[in-house]
């Protein structure tokens, strides 16, 4: 059967992913190396994802703020361990103006900065400096902040949404009086991410703590959300860090306690990014294009009037009446009354992943009916029903689509999680081409033999098993 996206997932998953982005009109590579331009339809998805998460962030008592894009290099020098994790990715601003030299605009040699600035790869340092001023007493705690911004990490092997030099994200930074509070907060934000992935994106995740080898630079504990893509590779979709007192001591974040003594605070940080978009695309989409969970679909329903010249105006007007009834129930609807051929309209919205596709022609208008097809399961779901029945049931249908998408992804994940007893079994499984996550005793990965396997098969320790931390999940990753 002919598909809209070629090659198919089975033929070349990586190329399929890139072509999916183009077919769904989500983004394109930018003139700046390693960067992307997110197009309106892709940005509309991101806005819905962002807004849904922002509600959950604020519900946990966090306030949004905005900190500078440029960070003095001296701030990074205060946290050497943290800097080591980003030094090779840092973009540096060294001049503050341009000058015409030999007919070309170049950095003016006389405008060289005394101290370079780093374009933020993450903001622990500059936010830590602000917190050292904003926190004075126990009355100022807890202080919970978040920002939605873009960051820069120079990327040598870019891939749209998954790894780009510039990307959008949220980063939360919280301060507490005790370690018990900060660790509980790091775990609470970790759980918030897990619930969001399940309830909004219909993506089941593996959750757990990063091993010391994979821990965020400068953190005492890093808790991660790991997703399994259709090709069996892991995608780290979000992390939450218990930073202990490392940053508090580096930046002088202290508070005067009820006992009259000055103490260092305890901090956390947590973040997700447009990488979630990549996970969304690779988890649910098929060889015909994008498949979107209803919560983040810019249009949850598209209505396609099947018109002839003599009925076009009347049928388009009737389609708009149906749309208004749906909008009154809170459903996002688009009526495609363009003069494009009907089959081309259908393929356009199939590729863009609209959850419910409605077709109406002269016969449906006469009968007060519509023909509806679910994007997630396609032709087998196609049925005709009255307009009133559809309007009444549309929100239930959308909820069912989400639940079914989640269940299918969960079933696929379960088939790609493998228990292995020792390194020989792991080596045999990887050598045979088996894909997915491999669960093995963590202690068995603490040896040179496993280090050699990581190099040979390009695998990493993803996280400790949350149910039994003596085990670790190992997988190839994006």
Question: How would you characterize the overall build of this protein?
Answer:
The protein is built from 14 helices and 25 strands. α2 crosses α6. It is globular, with a radius of gyration of 26 Å. The protein is about 35% helix and about 25% strand. The chain is of the alpha+beta class. It folds into three domains: about 210 residues, 2-Layer Sandwich (BirA Bifunctional Protein, domain 2); about 120 residues, Anticodon-binding domain (Rossmann fold, 3-Layer(aba) Sandwich); about 60 residues.
* Outline type: globular
Alpha-beta content class: alpha+beta
Number of helices: 14
- Largest sheet: number of strands, sense, barrel closure: 7 strands, mixed
β-sheet strand percentage? 25-35%
The tally of strands reads 25
CATH top level of the largest domain is Alpha Beta
Radius of gyration: 26 Å
Question: How does CATH name the architecture of the largest domain?
Answer: 2-Layer Sandwich
